Amino acid sequence: MDGEISTAEVRELLEDDADVRVVDIRDQHSFAHSRIPGSENLPFQQLSARIEELEGADHVVTVCPHGKASVQAAQLIGSYEGTADARVESMAGGLEEYGMRYGLARGDDAESENATDAEPPESPF
Hints:
Blueprint: E1 4-5, H1 7-15, E2 21-24, H2 28-33, E3 34-35, E4 40-41, H3 47-50, E5 59-63, H4 69-79, E6 87-91, H5 94-102, E7 105-106
Parallel strand pairs: 1-6, 2-4, 2-5, 5-6
Antiparallel strand pairs: 3-7
């Protein structure tokens, strides 16, 4: 694992169409409900069995609700021989912080082309 990456850095990578794989480790139901546009779902409970899906990736960012479990996932991915040359990071602050700053794609909207242009939610203050 190469450390943590901020939500702002993740957003910038996605806006720049960088070669990064954003791996959401939540369960399938949570992922289907809301997610970072362009992310993929590899639930933590299935990660060991499916880790080969990340083989050959150049940059992997793991995400979870609060940025804690994604650290463990990044460590697991970083220890896999097939990702030995990859940059593997955990997103600090998790989806809670990302969602508050930039919004998350929801349901069917997650697959729309405009999902990456979603406006951040309005502040209640």
